[in-house]
Design a protein that fits this description.
Structural class of chain B: mainly alpha
Largest sheet of chain A: 2 strands, antiparallel
Oligomer: heterodimer
Order of helices and strands of chain B: HHH
Structural class of chain A: mainly alpha
Low-confidence stretches of chain A: none
Order of helices and strands of chain A: HHHHHEEHHHHHH
Mean pLDDT of chain A: 77
Strand order of the largest sheet of chain A: 1-2
Shape of chain A: globular
Strand content of chain A: under 5%
Distance between the termini of chain B: 48 Å
Mean pLDDT of chain B: 87
Helix content of chain B: over 70%
Number of strands of chain B: 0
Chain lengths: 264, 102
């Protein structure tokens, strides 16, 4: 339950599911096999998604249209992985994941400054862009979404990775949305938080039907994550974007090292 | 444009309320189930409550997609009606496969 609380807090803060922390914990410390750990983690991803999104609605931070469009890809990725993942070896997947996480961490570190917001809110944001009240500059800001096909491809991969590793997939989407697609960090995190629930539901019922979800353990993890996500929301409203990105890059590096060590 | 923006915000608020309801109900079922399970792991009611909590949790995002679909139909935004329908179809595939495996 304590690990659920910590994972929930970090997840809420960064728009990730928190599974990045929960899977290694359940797998390595608790001794559950990888598929069970991933399935329980995916269940908590749904809880984080619903709880965090409920806390951020009404502030125009969630981009519903962009989120729904990207969900077409991320849910497809989840369904595809949910149906086929048993044919691929865990070691291969974990090595690939370690590489991707490290790569994104480096990219985040080299792109700390761009905030992707246009401070003149009277311009047209286009059909997928939007405006929101920015607490850092204290005014209405505007953003436009660029490179939608790239966002779709990454969402599909995120859906695959989500179902395979029991993580939300925000770990892949948020950096790409902020670095290349013009989406501000807070919008990317809020939109991703909403999306990961649907991404997880695209594969978790299959794992549940396969008996990989242990109800008491899943219940304890979910309750822990719900408590933790409260703390994350509180802290997230007060932290600066730059520090959020730095923290995210450090966590990605750590995850990469953990996964690499597990496969050696 | 203004009016469209306010409709989108309304959808966001509706979704927010729905998510709160789903999470609260699921957390209640899980908490009661967990306490009962800790006292007596063999008690079937405990497992029933835990499973019910997990199913409510999984149903919440699906319900969110259905609510969005209804709202986009009401707003006559056909592109997003198509997009949302696609998402719903994908989720249906998973749920059907899960039922077949049980």
């Amino acid at each position: 339950m304590a690990s659920g609380a910590v994972a929930g807090c970090m997840g809420a803060l960064l728009g990730l599911g928190g599974g990045v922390f929960l899977v290694p914990f359940l797998n390595a410390w608790f001794g559950l096999d990888f598929k069970t750990a991933a399935a329980i983690s995916l269940i908590t991803v749904i809880a984080t998604s619903s709880a965090v999104s409920a806390g951020t609605t009404g502030r125009n931070l969630i981009n519903l249209r962009l989120g729904m469009l990207l969900e077409v890809a991320s849910a497809a990725g989840g369904v595809a992985a949910g149906l086929t993942i048993s044919h691929i070896s865990d070691v291969t997947l974990e090595r690939g994941f370690a590489g991707i996480a490290a790569l994104i961490a480096v990219l985040m570190l080299t792109r700390l400054e761009p905030r992707n917001v246009i401070e003149d809110a009277t311009l047209d944001p286009g059909s997928f862009g939007g405006t929101f009240h920015d607490e850092e500059s204290g005014g209405e800001v505007l953003y436009r979404v660029r490179r939608l096909p790239l966002a779709m491809v990454v969402s599909f991969i995120a859906g695959n990775v989500s179902a395979a590793f029991g993580i939300g997939g925000g770990i892949l989407k948020v950096p790409v949305l902020t670095a290349w697609c013009g989406v501000p960090m807070r919008v990317a995190a809020a939109t991703s938080s909403l999306m990961i629930g649907v991404t997880a539901v695209a594969s978790v019922p299959i794992q549940y039907a396969n008996g990989y979800v242990n109800p008491p353990l899943a219940g304890a993890a979910v309750l822990g994550v719900l408590v933790g996500s409260r703390g994350g929301l509180w802290f997230g409203a007060r932290a600066r974007s730059k520090w959020l990105k730095l923290l995210m890059a450090m966590i990605l590096m750590l995850v990469s090292v953990i996964y690499l060590r597990r496969t050696l | 444009m203004r009016q469209e923006r306010s409709q989108i915000t309304r959808l966001e608020v509706q979704i927010g309320r729905m998510l709160v309801a789903g999470v609260t109900l699921s957390a209640l079922l899980l908490a009661i189930g967990l306490v009962m399970w800790l006292f007596d792991p063999g008690y079937w009611n405990a497992l029933w409550l835990l499973n019910a909590g997990l199913i409510v949790l999984m149903a919440t995002p699906i319900l969110r997609v259905i609510v969005s679909l209804a709202e986009y139909v009401a707003m006559r935004q056909w592109f997003f009606v198509a997009v949302t329908t696609l998402v719903l179809l994908e989720l249906t595939v998973t749920v059907v496969v899960a039922f077949l495996k049980r």
